[in-house]
Amino acid sequence: MKSKHKFIFSLLCVFFFKSVCAQQVNAIYTADVPVLTQSDDDKKEAIREGLAQVFIKVTGNSRIFEDYAALQKTLDEANVLVSEITYAQPDASSKLSILHLKFNHDKIDAALNEAGASVWPIPRPLVLAWIVLDTPDHPADLLGNDADTQIQTLLKTIAQKRGLKMIVPVMDIESINEVTLADVDKKNLSPILKASKRYGNSDLLIGTVKKVGNEMTSDWLLVTDDNQYAWKTAGLNIDEVFTDLTNDVTDQLVTDYFASLNTQAQTQVLVMIGDIHTPDTLIKLIQSLQSMTAVADVKLIETKGDDIKLNVSLRGTRDAFLKSMQAMKNIRASEIPSESADVISFKLLHKE
User: Crossing angle, helix 149-160 and helix 238-263, to 10 degrees?
Assistant: First the structure.
């Protein structure tokens, strides 16, 4: 009976994990843009703005257009990447409509891959934020799910624009008894870590926001599995503070993720690819492979007629590499059966 219960529990965990991943994927490939009218001109500009938001969320890179200038051209053709468009009215008194945009997952990844940009993959870290807000309009208190809904919504909305999942603790009797305002203000980790266990595997953000004169000041501590980061921010209002905070947290998590890839043991695989008819096709193929997040290095071993053999060093998993390979835009490849488990074979379907 115990084995049966464990099996059912394991299945539930798998379904929950897949559900969370699906929700994160849906969130980062969508954008909500306010528009004055539903005219073609307003819609075109909103789609362009929405695509810019999605590129930032998918990569985690707020400087994506400075780092990869080629993506600017993609913004001019943003409409071909949209898979769904709907309008919504925030409320009856609003003069604005919200254009909800859903972009094609594969086309977005292919455009980034072609530009040489890396995707910040799913699932991403969950950030549990322990925040004390202390202003004249808001006596010192911990943000929790049972109060301050407007401020929480603001924090959640700003975080979503960077593709970051951020939550605040449920301030029930258990949390109130475990963590005090002084614990958060002094960054007393022991009680905070204990109280955070109920939220599962998450990174912790601990900070205090205060009104000092005409300025909002704040100090923060980000606690991940491997590191701790402390810093201060300031702004004229809570919007500026939360925006700077979210950018700082996201930039650090993205930096940590890609740094970790460089320290992971690399898997070597032989990749056989057929139908390489021109040197230009070969160059494009190797460039595309080298730009993949899952790939650390590519070496050409042998050419034989229209077939080539590559030694590819993987940072990530074999499955991640296969998925990236199949999403390539410039060179579309299809996996074919191989005689050895150590060799991955592809045949080109078409070339540009």
Answer: 40
CATH number, domain 126-262, options 3.30.160.100, 1.20.1300.10, 3.40.50.2300, 3.20.20.370: 3.30.160.100
Number of Cβ atoms within 10 Å of the Cβ of 22: 11
Q: Which class for 184: exposed (0-12), middle (13-18), buried (19 or more C-beta within 10 A)?
A: buried
Q: 167 pLDDT band (50/70/90 cuts)?
A: very high
How much is the average pLDDT of 31-42?
A: 94
> Is 3.10.28 the CATH classification of the domain at 21-115?
yes
Instruction: State the pLDDT at residue 140.
Output: 83
Pick from 29-33, 148-152, 231-235, 343-347: least confident: 343-347
**Distance between CA 208 and CA 184 in Å, rounded?**
7
Q: How far apart are CA 247 and CA 250, in angstroms?
A: 5
Number of other CB atoms surrounding residue 125 within 10 Å: 18
Residue 15 has pLDDT above 70, yes or no: no
Distance from the Cα of residue 71 to its chain's centroid = 18
- Give the Cα separation of 245 and 264 in Å (integer): 29
CA distances from 28 to 24, 106, 287, 322 (A): 6, 13, 26, 22
Instruction: Please count the residues of the chain.
Output: 352
Distance CA 25, CA 19 (A): 10
Q: How far apart (Å, rounded) are the C-alpha atoms in residues 87 and 171?
A: 35
Q: Specify the residue for token string 């890839």.
A: 261
Cα 30 to Cα 43: distance, rounded to the nearest angstrom: 15
- Residues 119, 108: Cα–Cα separation, whole Å: 10
CATH number of 267-351: 3.30.70
Tell me what pLDDT residue 126 has: 92
Q: Give the single-character DSSP code of 45.
A: H
